[in-house]
Amino acid sequence: MGSTSTPRPMRADARRNYERIINVAREAFTEHGPEAPLDDIARRACVGPGTLYRHFPNREALIEAVYRADIEKLAQRATELAEARSPGDALAEWVREQVGFVVQNHGLAATLKAAIDRDSETFALCKVMLNDAAAKIVKAAQEAGVLREDVQPRDIMLMAHGVGAASQNSPDAAPRMVAVMLDGLRRQEP
Q1: Does pTM surpass 0.85?
Q2: Of 61, 73, 80, which is closest to residue 18 (Cα–Cα)?
Q3: Which of 57, 162, 71 lies closest to 112 in space, CA to CA?
Q4: Is residue 168 within a helix (H) or strand (E), and if so which, with residue range?
């Protein structure tokens, strides 16, 4: 028999500790960059260093976990919006959320992304998650006739990232730029 067993699910208390460490690490990385002291993260998360290292054997594992959690949340929102809203509204809201994510987390996301090996499994997984989410929401909007047919899923992600990055020093401009972006993406009637 091979070693293809699936990992056991975490106990509820272990899951809470894991999530608390991720949230505290996100805050610490925002404040101090990826070199934030791990012992400080453990203390702020109200866990011992052993608990932190049991979940995250090294700094890179913790950085990757924070990045992955943020990308999973953004990708999951595409699915939630697609199920709850019309295709056009789902696309518009997801774009707004992507821009908001970039505006709020640009420094952290760039720092974490730079700290992750581009060939890592985490980086590849995050790229696939976002690409799949974008493809799903773009396809639905195109099938509903509200999005130009020539728009590619990656176009949406690049434009949303660009608007978010451009809004770093002027966050009040983001809603206006998103509105212009969405108007340009809308399918025009002949």
Answers
A1: no
A2: 61
A3: 71
A4: none
In whole angstroms, what is the distance from residue 138 CA to residue 92 CA? Answer: 10
- CA 187 – CA 157 distance, rounded (Å): 18
Q: 77-94 burial, b for 16+ CB within 10 Å, e for fewer?
A: bbeebbeeeebbebbbbb
Helices (H), the chain: 12-32, 38-44, 49-55, 59-84, 87-115, 121-143, 153-166, 174-185
Residue 56 CB neighbour total at 10 angstroms: 22
Farthest CA pair distance, the chain:
64
Going by pLDDT thresholds of 50, 70 and 90, the confidence category of residue 7 is low
Pair of tokens at residue 147: 């999005």
C-alpha span between 178 and 18 (Å, rounded): 35
DSSP β-bridge partners for residue 147:
186
Distance CA 16, CA 115 (A): 25
Beta-carbon count within 10 A of 160 CB? 22
Is residue 114 predicted with pLDDT exceeding 80?
A: no
